[in-house]
Write a structure and sequence with these properties.
mainly alpha, Hypothetical protein af1432, 3 domains, two-stranded antiparallel ribbon, 20 helices, globular, binds fe (ii) ion
């Protein structure tokens, strides 16, 4: 992979990273140049002093070969202007459109105080590299752009419910706008929502909070609180997140709220962004399945607001209960056996630690499965005649399947970041067992 950033993590590397042109970013810029005027705001040189573009010159398709694989004296992001690019006023306008279309977003961000905070963002300046990236995102990855806007709306609601002051509210909403900006530098193939990524593929995606953090440090003067929030939006209070597996006590208050907003927005904005049956129930399950992941007051705000929408009935499902539940139970049994063996045999502290973590998470998931009667097959005949109850069970199974895959990715990332080749080989079976595809609706 060209110009990979998946291992980099120190601020000093950032400038150098952006001087070598990222092919995915470059491709977007070239595409943009066909529909908008993208102009050099200064003379652009490569690292040897060769002039590539004169100030005022317009970027075109012909420049693809000129730029590709070059190391520039200054990052291209600092040297381009896009005419008619997005502004924070136009972005807030898009937010308001989304709220009119989607009752969940309206319920979460529609309080008058939240609307005032959201509209207030429209007066802030947006220029330079950030304007370029957000313009690219709106044109070429609308679903991801809308997901960021969904997170902004939810953050406006969360900020009000948490009683944040005006400055913290602005910083939280701003961090939602840019939290996934790092995805613009990742191979789009890995960002295809239809594709199930294996842990080694997901490692590329998992680098996006660090890329975003580096981008903000290099091209903006955003406060540290915004940068920290962006860097932490995939961390979780129980230590299961990434990129640093921070504990809740190590996370910033804004980072915790950004994580809630990102999770909820991803569920609301997926698919055709419709208000699908059971969406509110799905959100509730995602936020509460593993206690300790998200701050309880924020979860309470979300679930209380969504309860008013009367959308907590899961879609009805008919079919054989055993066919749906047994593959998950089998997968859990297999993963637990491997993890238990690794905590009791001669392994490194890292392998023992991730195995214990896997057992704890499996225990929490298992408890939820017990609560819905997944292990009790004595009433299957009755259950299969109740499509509404089956629907609720399947909704939970879907979330469990996703959690097991996420656990696999988390373990893979942790051991590949901090472990030896031997550690990586030892956890491979556990990662494979947790990653095993299961087919539930
Ligand atoms: Fe993200």
């Amino acid at each position: 992979m060209l110009n990979t950033i998946s291992r980099f993590g120190v601020a000093g590397d950032a400038a150098d990273y952006f001087r070598l042109l990222n092919p995915y970013f470059l491709e977007s810029v070239i595409r943009l140049s066909a529909v908008k005027r993208v102009i050099a705001s200064c003379d652009i040189f490569d690292e040897y002093g060769t002039m590539l573009l004169i100030k005022g010159e317009q970027v075109s398709q012909a420049h693809r070969a000129t730029f590709l694989q070059r190391r520039l004296r200054d990052p291209l992001e600092n040297c381009l202007l896009v005419e008619g690019g997005e502004t924070l006023d136009s972005i807030v306008g898009d937010c308001l459109d989304l709220m009119r279309q989607n009752p969940v977003l309206d319920a979460l961000g529609g309080a008058s105080e939240s609307m005032v905070a959201l509209r207030g963002m429209g007066h802030m300046p947006l220029h330079g590299a950030l304007q370029l990236l957000l313009t690219l995102s709106r044109l070429y990855n609308r679903s991801h752009y809308d997901k960021r806007l969904g997170a902004m709306i939810i953050c406006a609601g969360l900020a009000h419910s948490a009683g944040l002051d005006d400055d913290d509210t602005d910083m939280l909403i701003l961090s939602a706008l840019v939290h996934d900006i790092g995805e613009m530098y990742i191979d789009p193939e890995y960002l295809n929502d239809e594709r199930e990524l294996w842990p080694d593929e997901w490692e590329h995606v998992a680098s996006h909070p660090r890329i975003a953090c580096a981008f903000l440090g290099e091209f903006t003067r955003f406060p540290t609180a915004v940068v920290d929030s962006v860097l932490q939006h995939h961390e979780r209070g129980d230590g299961s997140g990434y990129p640093f597996q921070l504990a809740g006590s190590e996370m910033s208050p804004l980072g915790k709220l950004a994580g809630v907003a990102d999770t909820v927005s991803a569920l609301v904005m997926r698919g055709d962004f419709g208000f699908e049956p059971g969406l509110c129930k799905r959100i509730e399950v995602a936020l509460t399945l593993v206690s300790g992941e998200f701050p309880p007051p924020a979860v309470s705000f979300i679930t209380t607001a969504l309860a008013r929408l009367n959308n907590d009935i899961a879609p009805a499902v008919s079919g054989r209960f055993a066919e749906r539940v047994l593959p998950i139970l089998q997968q859990i049994r297999s993963a637990r056996r491997i993890a238990e063996a690794q905590t009791s045999s001669e392994v490194s502290e890292l392998v023992a630690s991730v195995s214990r973590f896997a057992l704890e998470t499996i225990h929490v998931i298992d408890r939820s499965l017990h609560e819905i009667g997944a292990y009790d097959l004595s009433h299957v005949d009755v259950l299969e005649k109740k499509p509404d109850v089956m629907g609720e069970v399947c909704l939970l199974l879907g979330e469990v399947a996703w959690r097991l895959r996420h656990l696999a990715r988390s373990i893979y990332l942790r051991v590949h970041q901090h472990g030896s080749a031997s550690d990586q080989a030892q956890v491979a079976r556990l990662v494979a067992a947790l990653s095993e595809p299961v087919f539930v609706r």
